[in-house]
Amino acid sequence: MTIPRTDAAQVIVTANGPYIVTGHVSLALLTIIIDAHGGSEEWARGEALPTKAKYALCRCGHSAHKPFCDGTHAKIDFDGTETASRAPYLEQAQVFDGPVLALLDAEKLCAFARFCDPNGRVWNQAAETDDPQVRAMFLRQVGNCPAGRLVAWDKAAGAPVEPTLPISIGLVEDPAEGCSGPLALQGNIAVIAADGFAYELRNRVTLCRCGESSNKPFCDGTHAAIKFKADYPATEQHMR
Ligand code: FES
Q: Per the database record, which ranges form the Iron-binding zinc finger CDGSH type domain (predicted)?
């Protein structure tokens, strides 16, 4: 395929191949930190890896130089067929209503980061969002969902409440599960399908990099079941 020349931050999904990242997008480890009860509490962002303006990230899960592509996808006949819905998020999401904020939930996008679980679970918190303390917890936990499966909705404003995130790609690490996770795209990075379709622009998106998601190009949490492990650090010399 022809890769468009652009300086915009975007990720192009190539047919049965890697993700091509353009636009000087910062790339760093993004690790789930847990609380005293083992619940996902916050993110720790690592130092940015050295990268060029454009680089190729492994999508099949089998590169020897993860997170970068080394061409292994061709040797293993990787099937990267994109199967995810192309409907806008609001059409995919279920609504869990609350007095001040509602919770929107598109379950198929779950990346199994588990920020939704602590403090009584966000689905229950939504019903108590007239309590400022619960509301703050709810917004923090929902905003930490890397996949954008969960979105807080301000009923008075009629708009989503989104955290401010730097334009970056996080290489998710999940020590509590003993595995590596997806690519966490933050800050409205465009995702372009192999056939040129532009997925809806979103502040939070997780792309599969273990190769096993049933909802490609998005992560569906399978990396945890297969205990996907990435090797670090690699450098841009492994760029194709
Ligand atoms: S990285 Fe999550 S399913 Fe592949």
A: 42-79, 192-229
